[in-house]
Amino acid sequence: MSSTPTVFNPKAQKNTESAYHHQANHNQNRTVAQTANAVKLSSSNNPKIGFVSLGCPKALVDSERIITELTREGYQVAKDYDGADLVVVNTCGFIESAVQESLDAIGEAINKNGKVIVTGCLGKDAEKIRTMHPAVLAVTGAHAYQEVVTAVTHHVPKPTKSKNYDPKIDLIDDAGIKLTPKHYAYLKISEGCNHRCTFCIIPSLRGDLVSRPIDSVMKEAVALKNSGAKELLIISQDTSAYGVDLKYKTSFWDGQPLKSKFFDMCQAMSKLGIWVRLHYVYPYPHVDAVVEIMAQSMANSAGTGGLLPYLDIPFQHASPNVLKAMKRPAMSEDTLERIRAWRAICPDIVIRSTFVVGFPGETDEDFAYLLDWLKQARLDRVGCFTYSEIEGAVANDLPNPVPEHIKQQRYEALMALQQQISAEKLAEKVGKQLVVLVDEIDTEENIAICRSYADAPEIDGHVYLDNINHTAKAGDMFTVLIDEASDYDLFADFGSAVPV
């Protein structure tokens, strides 16, 4: 029996159930091979370390820093398990499915290599890891860069550094080694969180808020720009709380005093001349002033650089009863009014969020309230989780759990509503010009897979540029004319593209 090959055609996905591709979790998983391909270091006889990275962009940044330090010590990155002298597994422990994925990854590394060091969020539960995988050599927690390097050097002694000049090692700049494409990078501005949401265990995994001084943040931002990044994705656990723990300490950057404060950081970032995208922003009142910076950036650069009019805000729910049970910060704020205010300040603003359905005690009325809120809010990008218990979370002890089949029904209903909203909002883009950044080239289909200011990598939609020629490459920026829209994606022809 012959089979018909599947042809990539994003337009054909317009009305399919699989079109729910706005992801709730911003995972940046990397296998051993993917890590090696991203690093692309020259081969040598030096010891080789395999690296598996699981979880969110914050974990990916941790992996990048560890790999950078190991590389400075002379280690190479292995391209497979067989060629590795040791394997590091950077784990995720945010939800139970992530915990299981991490435990499975540890098991695979042990079976295929035998020498394994575990780090990351799941490392907080070392007993669980050692009980299931007693062969693990060492376990550390999240962002424990030096502990991992020390463990590696203990089990695989550091190579003797050659006196010969090696640009792959000697020219590692302030940007460090990145596991993202060259044209965009994640920049972590703080670690930990001061909130105690009942469904979340991040504070127990990563601690309370610890912000980086502003001069350190800006130094890395400039280094990333100089290394070729055209987009910076600002990440933390609570981006709009940046600097609170430092009491907004003033440092000097570029010869000028600058406060370690959310607004001041955004203002400085907006002047870098590249895209800057904010993630994990809580809807505090002072965000209004940052939206004004977005409006100014859009006007001054015509969308080619500056602070993008894009806010990733984890609303999680809308019902006052559920928000109270979740112990969400800013739950008393009238978020609909705040959204209206942001759109008045910056009409081009795109808002993405994540919601949890089926939280313990969530009634039919609570869920109906959430759907009505979404109809009014008309968010641009939405992801959704069905609630699941997380070991150590306070919410596990709340009464009135929601049956699994009800959770799934609510998930489907919410995503179906959001699919309709997304399709309507994207249809409004047809006939308009947008600046896009090329992420990938599909040579077989002659398509450039791009993103606009409205699209973060991995979790949002795309702009597909048809009929490209050989000159188009990843990292290029074009102004294009949108000629078609689907539920989640936009389309344009390369003939309309003007290089930026």
From TrEMBL:
Domain MTTase N-terminal: 47-157
SMART domains registered for this protein in UniProt: Elp3
Cofactor note: Binds 2 [4Fe-4S] clusters. One cluster is coordinated with 3 cysteines and an exchangeable S-adenosyl-L-methionine.
GO-annotated biological processes: tRNA modification
InterPro entries xrefs: Elp3/MiaA/NifB-like_rSAM (IPR006638), Methylthiotransferase (IPR005839), Methylthiotransferase_CS (IPR020612), Methylthiotransferase_N (IPR013848), Methylthiotransferase_N_sf (IPR038135), NA-bd_OB-fold (IPR012340), Ribosomal_uS12_MeSTrfase_RimO (IPR005840), rSAM (IPR007197)
Domain of life: Bacteria
Catalytic activity: L-aspartate(89)-[ribosomal protein uS12]-hydrogen + (sulfur carrier)-SH + AH2 + 2 S-adenosyl-L-methionine = 3-methylsulfanyl-L-aspartate(89)-[ribosomal protein uS12]-hydrogen + (sulfur carrier)-H + 5'-deoxyadenosine + L-methionine + A + S-adenosyl-L-homocysteine + 2 H(+)
Sequence ranges of Polar residues compositional bias: 1-18
A Gene Ontology cellular-component term: cytosol
Regions crossing the membrane: none
Gene Ontology molecular function terms on file: 4 iron, 4 sulfur cluster binding; aspartic acid methylthiotransferase activity; metal ion binding; protein methylthiotransferase activity
Subcellular location: Cytoplasm
Pfam families xref list: Radical_SAM, TRAM_2, UPF0004
Keyword Protease: no
Entry annotated with the keyword Transmembrane helix: no
Record keywords, A-Z: 4Fe-4S, Cytoplasm, Iron, Iron-sulfur, Metal-binding, Ribonucleoprotein, Ribosomal protein, S-adenosyl-L-methionine, Transferase
Cofactor(s) listed in the protein's UniProt record: [4Fe-4S] cluster
Binding positions for [4Fe-4S] cluster 2 per the UniProt entry: 193, 197, 200
EC number: 2.8.4.4
Primary location class: cytoplasm
NCBIfam families, per the entry: 30S ribosomal protein S12 methylthiotransferase RimO (TIGR01125), MiaB/RimO family radical SAM methylthiotransferase (TIGR00089)
Stated family: Belongs to the methylthiotransferase family. RimO subfamily.
Physiological role: Catalyzes the methylthiolation of an aspartic acid residue of ribosomal protein uS12.
Protein name as annotated: Ribosomal protein uS12 methylthiotransferase RimO
